[in-house]
Design brief:
Layout: E1 9-16, H1 23-35, E2 41-47, H2 59-62, E3 66-67, E4 73-74, H3 77-84, E5 94-96, H4 97-109, H5 120-136, E6 141-146, H6 156-169, E7 174-181, E8 184-185, E9 190-191, H7 194-205, E10 212-217, H8 223-233, E11 240-244, H9 252-258, H10 261-269, H11 279-289, E12 294-301, H12 311-324, E13 327-334, H13 335-340, H14 345-348, E14 354-357, H15 366-378, E15 383-386, H16 388-400, E16 407-409, E17 417-422, E18 437-445, H17 450-455, E19 459-466, E20 468-470, H18 475-481, E21 483-489, E22 494-500, E23 506-509, H19 524-534
The chain binds glutamine.
């Protein structure tokens, strides 16, 4: 393993006591502050599960699958990382135990370790370290987050790899931050530091001594608790920070900055920089705190149970609301419920100013989504369809305007008029992992279209994650009925965007614009959709 002779710095973030502490947000906030100090930062998420990537996991279990420009299906934390910083991350910025083991086992089969016993230490840990070096290329500082909780069996090779890594690159170049839950016990009326103490004890038994502790709590933790954590975890009191519940995740960078976290980090790593320029964050918070109105968007989907399943979508709607300086209300409408409901749709959509049908897979809830699209089209309510949402708006149009009553998609049916069919190379029973059309593709925008007005550009690039596409055999027919094909991938001859002429605002896209929106620069499609809803 090549030793690191440069002054490259590394921050590793671990979590203790419980999962879902918001390690990703804390990591992203730190990256933002350090980037705003002028440091060239990059980020890495290490996931200890065995899946090669989260692409095959149910979004209800794992949350959204985030897609990078280079077509990796990654953990949703990469979405936070991109939204909080100026970074465009790649495949190498997220890896799993599955990828690490796969590589080592493949190498073993190729004979690369011939004669040796292949073991977790050193072979798995070497592969983890190699990937950390790879992710940190071309940056001065890497922030690496280890998924899961300290004490989990599956995260131990990662923690051992970090320990070795610090030894390799020099302890002075590595900062360990432990984010730990500090629960409030209602019955006792106090915060408890014992879980944090145990978690740090566990870390220390693995040879990792955290330099900074961030207490994750519902409210501000009392000083006496901070004292205890400092004392028992062997961390100076000034190195104990707090991350308390906030109404908007976009407050986290400012909150951590207020406590002096970024200053402490550069002090401990021996870097000199100017103070961070946090004006943009202040503007974001100012817009959230002083809304000039309200907008209600109806999202018709099937993952009603979990906000995390549509993470980037919710964030993109928030960004657009921040841009318009209005308060956003999302009314979640369960597509499955709409399918056979006798309740008039007017009741479901009462007060809704814009209807959004997001991406999705499988046939459940499809008819409900089609009903919602028909409602938006005929009642002239601003409509925005994404991926599956676009495919269904083509089917809806086929069924109700072109009177092709068997219009459907090959995804849901074995027979009918397949207005939507599998792309070349894709099939119902094909190979599962990483096999969709993934990542960034170019799209030419039709002159004079709504899409052109929205993007103010004739060539765009957006990220994809799908297997099906509009069947070109039906394009002429759809056009004659009044559907406009306003975005095309000319190289592959694929429909990327559709819209309707006699509608105040009806636009749908095959790609996922939600992966590229940021709080300071809302995505044009979300921004214009909210603008239309506000009219
Ligand atoms: N299921 C559809 C497809 O594979 C849509 C995918 C999506 O919405 N991301 O094409």
């Amino acid at each position: 393993m090549a030793k690191n002779k440069t002054n490259k710095k590394y921050i590793f973030i671990t979590g203790g006591v419980a999962s879902s502490l918001g390690k990703g947000l804390a990591a992203a906030s730190m990256a933002s502050l350090l980037e705003r100090r002028g440091i060239t930062v990059t980020m890495l998420k290490m996931d200890p599960y065995i899946n090669v990537d989260p692409g095959t996991m149910n979004p209800l279990q794992h949350g959204e699958v985030f897609v990078t420009d280079d077509g990796a299906e990654t953990d949703l934390d990469l979405g936070h990382y991109e939204r909080f910083t100026s970074l465009t991350l790649l495949k190498k910025n997220n890896f799993t135990s599955g990828q690490v083991y796969l590589k080592v086992i493949e190498s073993e089969r190729e004979g690369k370790y011939l004669g040796k016993t292949v073991q977790v230490v050193p072979h798995i840990t070497e592969e983890i370290k190699r990937r950390i070096h790879l992710a940190s290329e071309s940056a001065d500082l890497l922030i690496g987050e280890i998924g899961g909780t300290v004490g989990d069996i599956e995260s131990s090779p990662f923690l051992e790899a970090i320990r070795q890594f610090a030894q390799d690159v020099g302890q002075q170049n590595v900062l360990l931050i432990h984010l730990v839950l500090v629960p409030y016990m209602k019955a006792a009326g106090e915060f408890k530091s014992k879980p944090a103490q145990h978690s740090v004890k566990e870390l220390r038994s693995l040879g990792l001594f955290p330099h900074l502790i961030i207490c994750r709590a519902e409210q501000e933790v009392d000083e006496s608790i901070v004292d205890k954590i400092s004392m028992f975890c062997n961390v100076p009191k000034q190195n104990v920070f707090q991350s308390i519940d906030v109404d908007s995740i976009y407050r986290v960078p400012l909150e951590l900055h207020r406590q002096g976290l970024d200053e402490k980090i550069i002090e401990l790593l021996g870097i000199w920089t100017a103070s961070p320029d946090i004006r943009e964050w202040k503007e974001v918070i100012d817009s959230i705190e002083n809304p000039k109105g309200e907008v209600v968007i109806g999202v018709v989907g099937k993952y009603t149970e979990l906000h995390e399943s549509y993470k980037s979508l919710h964030e993109s709607l928030d960004h657009a609301a921040i841009g318009h300086q209005v308060k956003l209300k999302v009314q979640f409408i369960n597509a499955k419920e709409l399918e056979n409901s006798k309740t008039p749709l007017d009741e479901y959509f009462q007060g809704v100013q814009g209807i959004l049908v997001p991406g999705g897979f499988g046939e459940s809830g499809i008819e409900g989504k089609i009903r919602a699209i028909e409602y938006a089209r005929t009642k002239k309510i601003p409509f925005f369809g994404i991926c599956l949402g676009m495919q269904l708006s083509v089917i809806e149009f086929g069924r109700h305007v072109l009177k092709l009553k068997n219009a459907t998609s090959e995804e849901f049916s074995l027979s009918g008029d397949f207005l939507i069919h599998y792309m070349e190379g894709q099939a119902r029973e094909g190979k599962k992992g990483g096999s969709m059309r993934l990542g960034a593709y170019g799209c030419s925008v039709e002159k004079g279209s709504l899409a052109e007005k929205v993007y103010q550009s004739s060539e765009i690039s957006e990220r994809h994650r799908h297997r099906l596409e509009v069947n070109n055999d039906y394009v002429e027919k759809l056009k004659s009925g009044g559907m406009i094909f306003s975005g095309m991938n000319k190289e592959l001859n694929l429909v990327e965007m559709v819209e309707l002429a006699d509608h105040p605002y009806f636009i749908a896209c095959q790609f996922h614009p939600e992966f590229k929106s940021r709080p300071f620069s809302p995505h044009p499609l979300f921004y214009s959709f909210l603008g239309a809803a506000l009219k």
